[in-house]
Amino acid sequence: MKKRNFLFNRKRYIMLIISLFIIALGFILMSGGGSGDPSVFKNEIYNFRRIRLAPLLVIIGFISCIVTILYNQKNNA
Q: pLDDT, tens digit, for every residue of 5-35?
């Protein structure tokens, strides 16, 4: 049997999964805060979590995902 050659090693796959989890967490934190009635305004939509924290997590997740994909590991074998 031939040994399968994967594109990434185990460490890079784990880093990629963590990056995707961070992106998903950012989008989850960004959700909600709206009003069920369109004529009622809630200031809850403009809190720190939705305006600062969630977009920052999404950006960090995308950057770490790109770094994980483009990282060139030197083979010592």
A: 777 788 899 999 999 999 999 999 999 877 7
Say how many C-beta atoms besides its own lie within 10 A of residue 44's C-beta.
12
Structure-block tokens of residue 6: 């994967």
Q: Is residue 1 part of a domain?
A: no
Residue 45 lies in a domain: yes
Domain that holds residue 56: 10-69
**Contacts by 55-58 with C-beta closer than 8 Å and gap 24+?**
55/26, 55/30, 56/26, 57/22, 57/23, 57/25, 57/26, 57/29, 58/22, 58/23, 58/26, 58/27, 58/30
